[in-house]
Design a protein that fits this description.
By secondary structure, the chain is mainly α. It has one domain. Helix content is 81%, strand content 0%. The model has no long low-confidence stretch (mean pLDDT 80).
Amino acid sequence: MSIVIWIFAPLIGLVLSLFAAGGGMIAVPLLSFGVGIPLKQAIAMSLIIVASVSALALLHGKRWQHIEWKLHRFFAFGSMSGGFLGASIGLSISNQVQGIIFALLTLVVAWWMHSDVMKRITAAAQTTPCDCKLCFFAGLMTGVVTGLTGVGGGFLIVPLLLMLGVASYQSAVAHSLILIVPTSLIAAARYAENVDMVWHPTILIIVLAMLGAAAGNVMMKRYSPNHLQKGFSLMLVLVAVWMLIKVVHGL
């Protein structure tokens, strides 16, 4: 098994535990270009990895206790529908186009993590009545991103939930984790209809990512979140540039 997996797989759990987002942005290029698995296979496997690690992070600290179920059920229905739709779109386009979309999305998230947008949204968050239509369409949008690119979408889900009526960042993170699990699994099942799953590296990465998640829980108590976010955003830029080079070179 490639040494690349042993080095980078723990980062998947590390960033998911720190930011409730970003695990898939490491998993997809790790599987596709680090291990040599075709992109659509890598996306399907990434979805299973992200779902597994998100489920572990949800159990940690009993985060499900923060769920506001009225808002959640409409967002969840939209998110799961979007996950199936996004996977269907992903299967219908070329690997090159899908890879470019993934790399550009990674650059957007790198900017997002480095900016103060999330701080402003978090500061302005307040409990508001659930607008069910908005929750559904917001979930649909994030689900499409998940299914198309193989990322959990927490970087979108958390701020959207804060704007839709979840009053605290921790609660939004809990909602994000519980949404990522079924949405990712539905999208993975859609991919599995057309691509073969490679289970050995998937299971190994899940185990290593869970170890990384445990390390992330320790780091949260010792290091400034601002410094961690800046480091993560720089890493995402490097991943995105590397993936763009690989994709363009393969055209």
